[in-house]
Amino acid sequence: METGETDRSDRILAEVKRRKAADRWVQADAETRNLVVFALNGDLYAFDSAEVRELLPCGTITFVPGCPDVIKGIINVRGDIESVLNLHRIMELPPSEPTRASRIVIAVNGGIRSGILVDAVVDVVAAPADGVKRPLSTLDKAVRQFAVGGETLYEGRYVTLLDVGKIFGGIGV
Amino acid sequence: MNRQKTAAGGALPEIRIMMFPFMDIRIGVDMEQIAEILDLAAARERRLDLHFFHETFFPDQDAGWRSPAALLLRGGDHLPAVVVETPQEIDAAVPLDAIHPMPALVTAACPRSPVWAAALPDDGRPVILVDLYRLLSTQRRHRK
To answer: Complex ipTM, two decimals?
Structure first.
């Protein structure tokens, strides 16, 4: 009984995937040095803009039962479903509830696409190539594992560059 | 209760689901899995093998039921029933185009989840689709 009925779910899902196969991955933009600077727990971080597709206000996030709390839930983005990652939890920062300033950064890496919830998007800036320095040795270990090239400065404050691929990899892909 | 519409070529243009609330979200279940919907007292009188929906996800928590109902599963004798909040909608049509696979990171994070997809109805609020047979398999694994 169970196998047959479970096959039905698999069959429906295979049909749904087949219908959607033609579609949605947007090709990566040409390589740039632009950074999307955002705030998290009072500190500044950034993603390479080549890995960012769009910035969304934080609307209703639908909780998915059974998911670990590194995944905040799913959202409807113009008729598609995207996951939303809880970056506070991933980087072992104190928990925080979304506010009006919160944003969902839709990021892409290695063919995987997901939203990442941040406290606020501060700016999109062009960072000078020689402005990126090695991460501070005092950087928290849990954050350091997701850092990519290093740190840069934005209006006199350190900005830690994060690697979207490492964040996705931490989820298990 | 076979209300499944099937196109000439065998493809499924839509499925029909029932929806019930769970925490602050909506859960959808394929009507093909449901033989009967009973109130909980009637299910207890019939001495059905009852499984509580929330126990799969929050085994140590009290669900705080408001109006529980038992979904008797289809497929043979001695089938279990799954206790849920009374469905808000029964036999709602969901076109296959409105069903979306779970995002890759969700699938990676919970590979054996009874959640198999999400539906996006006209109101735009995702409905989490759960396979009740997989739900029971998950509960059995947890109990071992």
So the answer is: 0.86
Under 8 Å CB pairs connecting chains A and B tally to: 130
* Sequence-separated (6 or more) residues with CB below 8 Å from residue A37: A44, A45, A46, A121, A122, A123, A124, A125, A154, A159
Q: Residue B34: count other Cβ atoms within 10 Å of its Cβ.
A: 21
B114-123, pLDDT tens digit by residue? 999 999 999 9
Query: How far A142 CA lies from chain B's nearest CA (Å)?
Result: 19
Instruction: Identify the bridge partners of residue B30 per DSSP, sorted by sequence position.
Output: B17
pTM of the model: 0.84
CB-closest option in B12, B106, B134 to A74: B106
Q: CB distance A17–B101 less than 8 Å?
A: yes
Sheet holding A52-57, edge to edge: A52-57, A103-109, A112-118, A80-86, A71-77
* Domain parsing of chain A, residue ranges: 3-170
Instruction: State pLDDT tens for residues B34-62.
Output: 999 999 999 999 988 999 999 888 877 77
CB contact under 8 A, B15 and A2: no
Q: Is the CB of B103 inside 8 Å of chain A's CB atoms?
A: yes
Would you state the pLDDT for residue A24?
42
pLDDT value for A10: 86
Neighboring chain B residues of A12 at a CB cutoff of 8 Å: 12, 15, 30, 96, 99, 116-117
* Superfamily of segment(s) A3-170: CheA-289, Domain 4 (2.40.50.180)
Cα(B96)–Cα(B139) distance, rounded to whole angstroms?
A: 28
DSSP structure class, residue B24:
T
- B12/B5 Cα distance (integer angstroms): 7
On whether the CB atoms of residues B72 and B37 are closer than 8 A, the answer is yes
CA distance A83 to A116: 8
Residue A23 binned pLDDT confidence (cut-offs 50, 70, 90): very low
